[in-house]
Design goal:
Elements lengths: L1 H26 L2 H8 L2 E5 L8 E2 L5 E2 L1 H14 L5 E5 L5 H7 L4 E2 L7 H6 L2 E3 L4 E3 L1 E6 L14 E5 L4 H12 L4 E5 L2 H9 L5 E5 H8 L8 E3 L7 E3 L2 E3 L3 H20 L15 H6 L6 H4 L6 H9 L2 H8 L29
Parallel strand pairs: 1-4, 1-5, 9-10, 9-11
Antiparallel strand pairs: 2-3, 6-14, 7-13, 8-11, 8-12
Helix pairs in contact: 3-9, 3-12, 9-12
């Protein structure tokens, strides 16, 4: 009996050591795996104009897509080395947890339960959003509080369901909900008259409006009923990979702050300002600290531009959506976007 106890104790101790060792080692290999594979696997939405959608030639474009490309450029030196994996709301977290994708950049709201209970880490708030409503202009509805008794179409597996339930209960609207699997199905249901309104993140509503048979017949109401901080997500347990994604995003914001763009970045190579030199890898070893080349930020910015360029070209003034930056302006311009310094 004593021998068997010792035997099992030793075996258990060995397994504990093995698992303890295997966890961090395997978790910290994400960057190495991407470099060896020579391509980044990035999860995106199945098709939301301005954020992630294939163009008529099959090339993925959009705000979330450019976040992926910036990381690929920082790690692999080429923003085109990305395999985009279109995922539904129900599929997105499982795909990341299982290792099918390296990161998720897909209009995903950070919440406490998601950040603490799924084995995932929300890296940054790339887009400050909020849930709104889209209705037919002919209804004459001016406020979401006028929707008493309305039929509302929602997408399953999102935070929108709970937000809407909270809003209707607080305002005693007594509405009827119809839930669909995809955003396209909710948009088509509204277009076909199966519901009076759809409720989703305002950014998505602007994209869905473009798909309506007569876009001018619809309006996005002014109310925002929730906080929807959207941004890239990685698996927990890999601090090195998290730092790569986080600091690549920070670099895009810092570039905007410093006036550095995709077109003029080479003009800053002789700059003397310390913050510019650190961003461009002209002094310090900040790239080395996250396992990348000294010019990692230069590669990211050359691939997609700074934050303003990404925003305006995809969803802002230079796009069909023309969404005002609002809270997504830099902190120095009255917004909430604020990057930690490279120093």
């Amino acid at each position: 009996m004593r021998f068997r106890t010792s035997k099992w104790t030793a075996l258990l101790a060995g397994l504990v050591i093995a698992f303890a060792s295997a966890g961090p080692i395997s978790a910290q290999q994400t960057v190495d795996v991407i470099k060896k594979r020579d391509i980044l696997h990035c999860g995106v939405n199945t098709g939301v104009a301005g954020f992630s959608a294939p163009d008529d030639k099959g090339r993925w474009t959009g705000f979330d897509v450019d976040i992926c490309r910036s990381v690929a450029a920082a790690v692999l030196g080429n923003g085109e080395k990305v395999r985009f994996v279109p995922l539904s709301s129900k599929e997105r977290f499982t795909a990341l947890q299982s290792g099918e994708i390296d990161m998720l950049s897909r209009q995903t709201t950070q919440t406490m339960s998601r950040d603490t209970g799924l084995g995932l880490t929300f890296v940054a708030i790339a887009y400050f959003d909020g849930q709104g409503f889209m209705v037919r202009k002919s209804l004459g509805v001016k406020s979401a509080k006028d929707l008493k008794g309305a039929t509302v179409c929602l997408q399953a597996g999102t935070t929108n369901e709970q937000n809407f339930a909270d809003f209707t209960r607080a305002n005693k609207l007594e509405t009827k909900s119809v839930v669909f699997e995809t955003a396209d199905e909710t948009q088509k249901a509204l277009d076909a008259g199966r519901c009076d309104t759809i409720s989703s993140d305002a950014s998505q509503l602007y994209s869905q409006r473009l798909k309506m048979s007569k876009a001018d017949d619809f309006i996005v109401l002014p109310e925002i009923i929730s906080k929807e901080p959207l941004g890239p997500v990685v698996r927990q347990g890999d601090a090195a990979w998290m730092n790569v994604v986080k600091w690549t995003f920070n670099a895009l914001l810092i570039a905007e702050e410093l006036g550095i763009t995709k077109a003029n970045i080479d003009n800053f190579q002789s700059a003397t300002a310390p913050d510019v030199r650190r961003l461009l890898g002209l002094e310090g070893e900040f790239g080395k600290s996250i396992g990348l080349d000294t010019d990692w930020a230069v590669k990211a910015i050359k691939a997609v531009g700074n934050y303003a360029e990404i925003y305006e070209s995809n969803v802002g003034s230079g796009s069909r959506l023309k969404i005002d930056r609002g809270l997504n302006k830099l902190w120095s311009a009255g917004g909430l976007q604020y990057a930690a310094p490279i120093r």
